[in-house]
């Protein structure tokens, strides 16, 4: 048996916290009866409705996709562009991406139908490292790299300190390959960080999320996370400093 709000969150209806609010407001029914008690536990045989809509209880699935550039990190796109779900044409479960990667950014993105898992990983208080490899226009100086490491001011505030390492430079082409590790999840954050110091990014890839990486994978490849990896990702989130 599982707590009602957890089952609602795992079904991808909403976050567990919002599910608790819906229960308190009397908007959730179990087997046709309104339930307002947060401690209520349900089984797989119970019928759950939220705002009159039956919750489909699918088995949780967890996937890692090596997203190519030119793909939207969304379940649909009104402009008809390719989305991450196009890589899962035979998937019966309703899955969705955990966070986002920009249209022009390639790399590691997770997809799941487990709402609680997704919300835990995306919660700002859980500082899970994300590692990016950036190719810059121009070669940042040591002082400018230190600015990124300490945090730079963006229009939505200062960034947290980052780990930044120059992997290689090409003096002839005036480009650099830089590894950046951040734990925040602001929109286009890495690109904006480099723009703030005057070095726009020509190419960007997220190659690691927590301990998960892209080793042995090519763009467009998919693999399912093992139960051990799912458990470890949950543990990684809840043990991070807030």
Automatic annotation (TrEMBL):
Keyword set includes RNA-binding: yes
Q: Which GO terms describe its biological process?
A: enzyme-directed rRNA pseudouridine synthesis
InterPro entries in alphabetical order = PsdUridine_s_RsuA/RluB/E/F_cat (IPR042092), PsdUridine_synth_cat_dom_sf (IPR020103), PsdUridine_synth_RsuA/RluA (IPR006145), PsdUridine_synth_RsuA/RluB/E/F (IPR000748), PsdUridine_synth_RsuA/RluB_CS (IPR018496), RsuA_PseudoU_synthase (IPR050343), S4_RNA-bd (IPR002942), S4_RNA-bd_sf (IPR036986)
Per UniProt, the keywords (alphabetical) are: Isomerase, RNA-binding
Query: Which Gene3D superfamilies does the record associate with it?
Result: Alpha-L RNA-binding motif (3.30.70.1560), Pseudouridine synthase I, catalytic domain, N-terminal subdomain (3.30.70.580), RNA-binding S4 domain (3.10.290.10)
Q: Which GO terms describe its cellular component?
A: cytosol
Q: Name one GO molecular function term.
A: RNA binding
Q: Which intervals hold domain RNA-binding S4?
A: 2-59
Record's superkingdom? Bacteria
Q: What is its EC number?
A: 5.4.99.-
According to the record, the signal peptide region is none
The protein's enzyme class = isomerase
Stated family = Belongs to the pseudouridine synthase RsuA family.
Matching PANTHER family: PSEUDOURIDINE SYNTHASE FAMILY PROTEIN-RELATED, RNA-BINDING S4 DOMAIN-CONTAINING PROTEIN
Q: What is this protein called?
A: Pseudouridine synthase
From which organism does this entry originate? Bacillus solimangrovi
